[in-house]
């Protein structure tokens, strides 16, 4: 087995990415502190043709060297928008017809492995601060919460790891299960 060279991967250029059909999914970062986490979310959003990333509150915005270090240029391909208040992002998304979920451990949350998405629906997922999670006021505005099943001693995953798992599951469900 031979590893492929970068030139053999046939990846999109930034211009081709901008023109490509996107997955109708917006990832919202609610007061995420780590610039490496922000960059990692951009990189994953690029990998799965996500519609946009919304950066809210204290979440840093490009251009920034620490974001670029993890994003590797994905901050230039993926559309992003900044909101001072996460609540404003949620209101806008809901007005635009998105079903908005907080990724949070909450009463009545849906386990990610039990999630069933509707064909033709637009979705947004909100990932919260590394310590405090998604703000309760924001959770209250959402149509529901999605929780990742976990079986060890820790009660949470790193926000960029969580984003990767959630984005992949939405991509898988929306791409393969809705055809």
TrEMBL record:
<feature type="domain" description="tRNA/rRNA methyltransferase SpoU type">
    <location>
        <begin position="25"/>
        <end position="167"/>
    </location>
</feature>
<protein>
    <submittedName>
        <fullName>tRNA G18 (Ribose-2'-O)-methylase SpoU</fullName>
    </submittedName>
</protein>
<dbReference type="GO" id="GO:0006396">
    <property type="term" value="P:RNA processing"/>
</dbReference>
<dbReference type="InterPro" id="IPR004441">
    <property type="entry name" value="rRNA_MeTrfase_TrmH"/>
</dbReference>
<keyword id="KW-0808">Transferase</keyword>
<dbReference type="InterPro" id="IPR001537">
    <property type="entry name" value="SpoU_MeTrfase"/>
</dbReference>
<dbReference type="InterPro" id="IPR029026">
    <property type="entry name" value="tRNA_m1G_MTases_N"/>
</dbReference>
<dbReference type="Pfam" id="PF00588">
    <property type="entry name" value="SpoU_methylase"/>
</dbReference>
<dbReference type="GO" id="GO:0008173">
    <property type="term" value="F:RNA methyltransferase activity"/>
</dbReference>
<dbReference type="GO" id="GO:0005829">
    <property type="term" value="C:cytosol"/>
</dbReference>
<keyword id="KW-0489">Methyltransferase</keyword>
<dbReference type="InterPro" id="IPR029028">
    <property type="entry name" value="Alpha/beta_knot_MTases"/>
</dbReference>
<dbReference type="GO" id="GO:0003723">
    <property type="term" value="F:RNA binding"/>
</dbReference>
<dbReference type="GO" id="GO:0032259">
    <property type="term" value="P:methylation"/>
</dbReference>
